[in-house]
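Step 1: inspect the first sequence and its tokens.
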Amino acid sequence: NRHMKIIFIVIGIIILFILYRYFAFKKESAKTHKLRFERIKPLVEKLENGEEIKKEEVLEYAKDNKTRELTYQILSENNKTELFPKEYLTIESGAESKLVNWLEFPTELDKAPDDIKHLEKVKIDFDGNNVFYHVFKYMTYKPHWAAENGWMLGVVGPYFDDSKPYDFPAATFSRCSSKVGEIEPIDEVKWVHENIAMKR
């Protein structure tokens, strides 16, 4: 009957929308993955060709928070982490790069922030264990839509007492609406811990 036809049409539209979102996400993810590798392509090619890599070359990639995390990962896979500059071999440096890459995609911000600063390290007691999160403030410039938000909060973690600088922080997150001055870093961390970390 007519009523059932309408229901099937609506279900069909919903399924088509879900499929579209899925394939759009996969395409965008592949595009971003390619972009990230393009940024460090000269380094990757040198590693693949067995060419000598100078510490000064690696420093340029480590300085850039968009390429820092991937640079460390690539060097680690090739057993060449001794080339990675010690000044960026910190959890804060790794967390910053992780957040920048996460904000670029797949979030609603959809770009690397134009400015980012470490605010504080927040400790949470979880089942008698210390859990740490790093809180950053970041902003974008006009004409990006988020420029009017000013400084926003981003959280990276959880880290533990024995965490290494480039360990994977599963609860990297920003609501892109939590503004500095409107919510305290500790409260944002609690929100991320309860709503992101605990749900994974």
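Step 2: inspect the second sequence and its tokens, then contrast the two.
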Amino acid sequence: CGHDGHTTILLGAARALAEFSKTHPLPAPVMFVFQPAEEGGGGGLRMVQDGCLDGSIAPWKVTKMFGLHGWPDVRQGMVGSRSGPLLAAADRFEITIEGKGAHAAQPFKSIDPVTTAAAIVTAMQTIVSRNVDPLEAAVVSVTTIHAGSAFNVIPAEAKITGTSRSLDPEVRILLEKRIGEVSQQIALAHGCTATVEYERGYPVTRNHPEAVETFMNLAQTELGEESVYEVDRPFMGAEDFSYYGEVVPACFFLLGLLPPDESSMPLLHASDFDFNDSAIEIGIRMFTRIALEA
């Protein structure tokens, strides 16, 4: 996903500011947050809980925070952001369906969790289309189904996992409620039982308007107006930078990775994704400018 590139950018900005501070005092203290476990581990939350923002680790409190993510859909040399929601809240669910196993030649002696799982997956596709206002953003995706170990045996259990995404707290509550209801009631209709474990993940990455305005102004000064754009709508991916934005005014922005001579590049989380090292300079320049003038 490019975290090696992000870390390199932060190290580069730290080095640039360290050199600058040898001859010019920094106008304000600067903290660099090298956090672990962004991909599913919630490292941002752990950093907040450990006191990286409230002055209990560093000798000052953080008053503004900025972060970036490389973006393959954006041309190299460009940066962009938006006020309000930029990335979605991300939750995960696991549904365990209990039935009764039997020989595959005698399905009438089973209570089949596989057909039940199939019905649940199909029914869950109506949660967004029939329960969520079409003007609201929501995603329910089933990503794994596991059951059985032999071609001629109907198993006693099946498991479904997946993720839900939302931008609005009420929609988030609705998705959790309906995933549980649909799974359990469909299972009951098929004679099975369903146990639903729903885990709240990252909150919405919500950019503070003043922090975004600061970023936009400084980006235009550093890179030129033609290299700065306003992101027109949120993305349904998630980011644990969101935890910082719940504590201090924050701006998360996108750093263009698409090489100038290419029409496309592998997307984030693709097996062949490779961070475009030529974009590192832009990231360092932006972080340095923000640290000196924000």
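Step 3: confirm your contrast with the notes below.
The first strand starts at residue 65 and ends at 75. The chain has a mean pLDDT of 96.
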